[in-house]
Amino acid sequence: MQTNDVNVYISNVVDKYSDMVYRTAYHALSDVHYAEDITQEVFLKLCRTMPDFESEEHEKAWILRVTINMCKNYNKKVYTHPNIELSENIPVTDEYKTDGTVLSAVKALPEKYRNVVYLYYFEGYPIKEIAQIMNSNQNTVSSLLMRARKKLSVMLEGEFGDECI
């Protein structure tokens, strides 16, 4: 590809997928700034590697996989090198409070469940495609989804009356 073609391609991909990448990163990290950083890094990786995609779905799956992997790497880094608050007087903003909503409960799930639930319910992917995105077995994804539903049911018990998840 010529430089102008590459620029047009990258611009189109960013326009098409940046919201999805940002939502996925924010969902995984619950931090606006880190989600923005991950969004930039995903598209930088695309620019650097310029993989040859078989289809638009393959391209989308690659972008989601890279996003999820970058979020996992970030979470590993935070776990092994936690940030220490400089002051206890820093106010907690609304974005970090749990409010009893389904989204808050999903964010409280362990990462392996959270990603599957996000891709299934929020991005609308079927189990087969989630398995491909996560480089996993379909049965594993189904099990993770079933366990996540059970955990959510326990977490949200009484929050929504008699409604089921």
Q: What does this 3D model show about the protein?
A:
The protein is mainly alpha-helical. It folds into 2 domains: 1-83, Rna Polymerase Sigma Factor, Chain: A (Orthogonal Bundle); 94-160, Winged helix-like DNA-binding domain superfamily/Winged helix DNA-binding domain (Arc Repressor Mutant, subunit A). The protein is 69% helix and 0% strand. It contains 7 helices and no strands. The chain has helices spanning 3-29, 32-49, 56-80, 102-108, 111-122, 127-133, 138-155. Helix 1 packs antiparallel against helix 2. The chain is globular and about 60 Å long.
What labels describe this entry?
single chain; 165 residues; mainly alpha; Rna Polymerase Sigma Factor, Chain: A; Arc Repressor Mutant, subunit A; 2 domains; 7 helices; 69% helix; 0% strand; globular
What is the N-to-C order of secondary-structure elements (H for helix, E for strand)? HHHHHHH
Radius of gyration: 18 Å
CATH class of the largest domain: Mainly Alpha
Q: What is the domain tally?
A: 2
| CATH T-level topology of the largest domain | Rna Polymerase Sigma Factor, Chain: A
Q: Helicity, in percent? A: 55-70%
Number of helices: 7
- The rough form would be described as globular
Poorly predicted spans: 84-98
By CATH, the superfamily of the largest domain comes out as: RNA polymerase sigma factor, region 2, helix turn helix motif
Q: What is the first-to-last residue Cα distance?
A: 48 Å
Which CATH architecture of the largest domain would you pick? Orthogonal Bundle
**Derived structural class:** mainly alpha
* Beta-strand residue fraction: under 5%
The average pLDDT value, as a whole number, equals 83
- Strand tally: 0
Q: Biggest sheet, in brief? A: none
